[in-house]
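Possible regression after last week's pipeline update?

I re-ran a chain I had predicted before the update to compare outputs. Posting the input and the new output here so someone can diff against the archived version. Not blocking, just want to make sure nothing changed silently.
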Amino acid sequence: MRKAEVVRKTKETDISVKINLDGSGISNINTKIGFFDHMLTALSKHSGIDMDITCNGDINVDCHHSVEDTAIVIGDALNKALGNKEGINRYASFTMAMDDALVLCAIDLSGRFYYESDCYFDTPKCGDFECETTDEFFKSLAENAKMNLHFMVLRGKNSHHIIEAMFKALAKCLKDAVSINPNIKGSLSTKGVI
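New output (post-update):
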């Protein structure tokens, strides 16, 4: 089973993440930021990756540290659970419709970090979640998972719908990219390793 558990404690946050890449999308999420919990639950459900995430952070300041640090730990756990990445599809792309929002996501589990997004939000918050931390989450996730992650927001007005489409599009990409393909022998790379 491709599983990982990562714990990270700082003066700002105390985070525990357990994931199972070969799960069925079962999650237990508690970051004390309602909208963020909703997004992480969607990430788990639509990727088929079981996730157990607990974050105790300085949300009395704002949600930034909790969101960014949770992304660091999830990314680290994903990278560890993937191991040598032998047999995985590696690449994936998906275009997600969410009411008025239309978001394209593409990933490469390349072992190298790159992040690009054109997301922009007219509203400052969704519940207690500061919309500008969306970009910080995905950047930190990509950096610590050692993957290329690209988003294009093709359409959308409602910040909730755009952010949810981003999380769900990434989930669908992860589902495909981490899947074991019996036709791939070793690593899907001309280098022989990913």
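Follow-up from reviewer: compared with the archived run. The CA atoms of residues 31 and 107 lie 26 Å apart. Marking as no regression found.
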